[in-house]
């Protein structure tokens, strides 16, 4: 007797209720990840307070205007720290996923019906929320304390939106890929944080990009943070701020091209390098 049912018999077999879509499960997972993030109050406070403290310190030490531009140094730092804030998606995911792998969370999730894509959507949702909150806090401080100019019209906000979106997407994908580099969850913080800090210093966050040696500018130009900072400076510093760039222009077409390339490259790296099991799991 054939195991295949056809005709009227097959039609009478009830369909099992389908599982929720991966997108819906990813949304639910994002809520869980976000709640877990904010419940770790010490960590959450540090994440949001760190760029604020740096802004106040550097803005106080290097008070005054950038010569010949009419732009205050504090305004330059706000734009740069916005880029660094978006890039924390890289740091947060690389460390968080490495710890999930080390403590067996990834292995357990891989054995459940939860679509694997839902896990990544959840992680991405959490870093997106934290990036938005961090950007809102920095902008509020910039507007109220440092007279940061608002973006010019809808076009300025549109530029802010696509730079932030491409930046956080590329950073998140790179974070997923980089999570496979640490040998354990305990070493993840050191392995990931060091290159991130170095990138901030060579990408125009703390030191004006035009004051860096040419070879450092070439190194920074390979990574997305330099282009994110450049895009945000174009939004908030206007034409006067273009004099601070190496080429004397914001090169927004190139900013879009490089950030989009990192989104594509980050996805390829994720697919090629991501591991669900730790190095000692066999």
TrEMBL record:
Pfam families cross-referenced by the UniProt entry: ABC2_membrane
Listed GO CC annotations: ATP-binding cassette (ABC) transporter complex
Membrane-spanning ranges: 44-64, 76-99, 120-145, 157-178, 190-209, 255-274
Domain ABC transmembrane type-2 stretches: 42-277
Source species, domain of life: Bacteria
Subcellular location: Cell membrane; Membrane
Main location: membrane
One MF annotation (Gene Ontology) recorded for this entry: ABC-type transporter activity
Any single biological process term in GO: response to antibiotic
Key words, A-Z: Antibiotic resistance, Cell membrane, Membrane, Transmembrane, Transmembrane helix, Transport
Family: Belongs to the ABC-2 integral membrane protein family.
Record-given protein name: Transport permease protein
Organism of derivation: Sphaerisporangium rufum
Organism classification: Bacteria, Bacillati, Actinomycetota, Actinomycetes, Streptosporangiales
């Amino acid at each position: 007797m054939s195991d295949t049912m056809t005709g009227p018999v097959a039609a009478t077999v009830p369909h099992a209720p389908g599982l929720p879509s991966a997108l819906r499960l990813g949304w639910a997972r994002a809520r869980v990840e976000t709640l877990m993030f904010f419940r770790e109050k010490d960590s959450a406070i540090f994440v949001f307070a760190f760029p604020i403290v740096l802004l106040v310190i550097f803005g106080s030490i290097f008070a005054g205007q950038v010569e010949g531009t009419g732009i205050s140094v504090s305004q330059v730092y706000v734009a740069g720290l916005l880029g660094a804030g978006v890039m924390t998606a890289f740091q947060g995911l690389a460390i968080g996923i490495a710890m999930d792998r080390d403590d067996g969370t990834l292995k357990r999730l891989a054995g459940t019906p939860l679509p694997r894509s839902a896990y990544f959507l959840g992680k991405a949702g959490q870093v997106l929320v934290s990036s938005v909150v961090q950007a809102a806090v920095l902008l509020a401080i910039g507007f109220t304390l440092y007279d940061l100019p608002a973006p010019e019209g809808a076009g300025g906000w549109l530029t802010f939106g696509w730079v932030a979106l491409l930046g956080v997407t590329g950073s998140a994908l790179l974070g997923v890929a980089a999570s496979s580099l640490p040998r354990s969850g305990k070493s993840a913080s050191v392995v990931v944080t060091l290159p991130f800090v170095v990138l901030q210093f060579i990408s125009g966050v703390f030191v004006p990009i035009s004051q860096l040696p040419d070879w450092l500018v070439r190194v920074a130009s390979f990574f997305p943070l330099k282009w994110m900072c450049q895009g945000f400076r174009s939004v908030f510093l206007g034409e006067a701020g273009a004099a601070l760039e190496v080429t004397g222009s914001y090169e927004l077409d190139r900013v879009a091209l490089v950030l989009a390339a990192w989104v594509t490259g980050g996805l390829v790296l994720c697919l090629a390098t991501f591991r669900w099991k730790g190095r000692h799991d066999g």
